[in-house]
Write a structure and sequence with these properties.
This protein has 461 residues and is an alpha/beta fold. Helices cover 44% and strands 11% of the residues. Among the domains are: 37 residues, no CATH class; 104 residues, Arc Repressor Mutant, subunit A (Orthogonal Bundle). The chain contains 18 helices and 13 strands. The strands form 5 sheets. The chain has a 4-stranded antiparallel sheet with strand order 4-5-8-9. It has a 3-stranded parallel sheet with strand order 1-2-3. The relative contact order is 0.09. The chain binds one RNA strand of 75 nucleotides through α4, β7, β8, α5 and β13.
RNA sequence: GGCGCCAUCGUCUAAUGGUUAGGACAUAAACUUUUCAAGUUUAGAAUCGGGGUUCGAUUCCCCGUGGCGCUGCCA
């Protein structure tokens, strides 16, 4: 087999879509597995909608994901001469022609066809006439309806019965090529061996095959159509479903997690969590799934939490842009972090907590009892040997036993310990939920702990 | 309407002619706990329908049904 060369071809009319990212991943894996090359081609022939900002965004997103392309970025806007040459060749050989029909004529034709329940298409009567050779109007490929088929590497043989798409358009003019033409010219020119793209391109394939036939003597590339990524309602995932751009995930997710998720969505690897190198090793194009997969953010979150747990302290600080997080707090935080920005829920490790005094209340106990508990905790802390964490736990447990109303707590030991631990945790964190307050106290240090207990006592006074 | 693709737990999927239909996420419960977002354990949860082929179909074939995609002088 010739060298494997694959590409992704996003158009810079929006941010990098997660579907395109998945397609990029599979192309990348396939190239990596087969010692091939992975190219990036920007399809910016639509001057109205393409922007440089989106192009930069796409490059950034791909880089963030770690899907580095080989060679230079190819831009269709810089290759207009190639398309023009191809068009001139097709025109000269009578394989393409100028269509002079006006838009309203075509619309008329379409309406009639719909009324007759025929497939909508334009079969042009200019194609073999002199008029078809006269410049002006759009350029169409001269076709003859027939069956077209191709072998899809993922789906097997796909047959288009009576491929009835008429003389379809390939360029608005010599200098304005349309999608199908540009794609084929580029794929030929870049010597693409495998076209791996979304399922939504299946219906374009027979058209492109006809262009290959008209332009190329050798065989066309091998095609493989990936399943679509679906929204929870099983329609194609699009902007109206919320976060669909890779960049939307950047603040909360690790690229490794997103990549792992996208990869596992339409392919079954030997394990749940694996690096892209491990994925590449196992990857076989023919084993990619056929059916669309719903984007389940819960599973992404879970994967993300698994990756976050493995992060080292420095990385966490950089990623969250919070260098002030104490090192000792990091294991306590990463243990329960699903999204990076959730780190804000743990800001009591580096900031004075702010909370309502009602939060200090515990079960049926009175304000006086709570206050007394905190005062006792304060004394315990002051006398406590700071190095011994388990000693503090024992001391606080004992305090709980002492403070609890024997009538209330004889059968409810937990409640009396709660009288100690609940206000203590709130004093330290200002939250209902947090890691073990003793663990938090150790991270905070004696001075801060005493300070915060004092603040809490103050609030109750 | 035309053409095409697809069809196993809620979700992602494994099993391709013989399994108690397996796993992961999610959910629920129990345990643990001062609380929980963490941990451990357990549970419930699926082969779209109808015909074939076969001793036997999740699996192969056909027909329905459903979902989705495409149907541009967008890509």
């Amino acid at each position: 087999m010739d060298k494997v060369k694959v590409r992704i071809a996003p158009s810079p009319t929006g941010n990098l879509h997660v579907g395109t990212a998945q397609s990029a991943l599979y192309n990348w894996l396939f190239a990596r597995k087969n010692g091939g090359e992975f190219y990036l081609r920007i399809e910016d022939t639509d001057k109205e909608r393409s922007t440089k900002e989106y192009e930069h965004g796409i490059l950034d997103a791909l880089t963030w994901l770690g899907l580095k392309w080989d060679g230079e970025v190819v831009r269709q806007s810089e290759r207009m001469d190639k398309y023009k040459a191809a068009l001139e060749k097709l025109l000269a050989e009578g394989k393409a022609f100028y269509c002079h029909h006006a838009k309203d004529e075509l619309e008329e034709e379409r309406k009639e066809q719909e009324a007759k329940k025929e497939p909508p298409r334009h079969v042009c009567d200019h194609k073999d006439s002199e008029k078809g050779k006269t410049e002006g109007g759009i350029i169409r490929l001269a076709t003859h309806d027939s069956n077209t088929l191709f072998k899809d590497e993922i789906r097997g043989v796909i047959v288009f019965k009576d491929a009835l798409f008429g003389d379809f358009s390939i360029a608005k003019s010599l200098d304005e090529p349309l999608y199908n033409l540009a794609v084929v010219v580029d794929d030929i020119d870049m010597e693409i061996s495998h076209v791996i793209r979304g399922e939504d391109h299946i219906s374009n394939t027979p058209k492109q095959l006809l262009i290959y036939e008209a332009l190329l003597e050798g065989p066309p590339p091998i095609f493989a159509h990936l399943p679509l990524i679906l929204a929870p309602d099983r329609s194609k995932l699009s902007k109206r479903h919320g976060a669909v751009a890779v960049v939307d995930y950047k603040k909360d997710y690790l690229p490794e997690a997103l990549l792992n998720f996208l990869g596992s969505m339409s392919y079954t690897f030997s394990k749940e969590i694996l690096t892209r190198e491990e994925m590449a090793e196992e990857f076989e194009l023919s084993k990619v799934h056929k059916s669309g997969a719903v984007f389940d953010v819960k599973k992404l979150n879970w994967l993300n939490s698994q990756y976050i747990k493995q992060l080292n302290n420095l990385t966490i600080k950089q990623l969250t842009n919070l260098p002030e997080i104490p090192d000792a707090a990091i294991p306590l935080i990463t243990e329960r972090l699903e999204k990076l920005t959730d780190v804000g829920n743990f800001d009591y490790f580096w900031k004075e907590p702010n909370y309502d005094s009602n939060l200090l209340d515990w079960k049926g106990f009175s304000r006086e009892e709570i206050k007394n508990s905190l005062e006792q905790v304060r004394i315990t802390i002051e006398y406590w040997d700071w190095a011994d964490k388990s000693a503090l736990r024992l001391l606080l447990d004992d305090l709980g036993k002492k403070l609890g109303d024997p009538a209330k707590s004889s059968n409810d030991r937990g409640a009396s310990r709660g009288l100690v631990y609940w206000p203590f945790r709130v004093a330290l964190t200002g939250k209902e939920k947090s890691p073990d307050p003793v663990d938090v106290a150790v991270v905070l240090g004696k001075d801060v702990v005493l300070e915060r207990v004092d603040v809490a006592i103050e609030k109750l006074t």
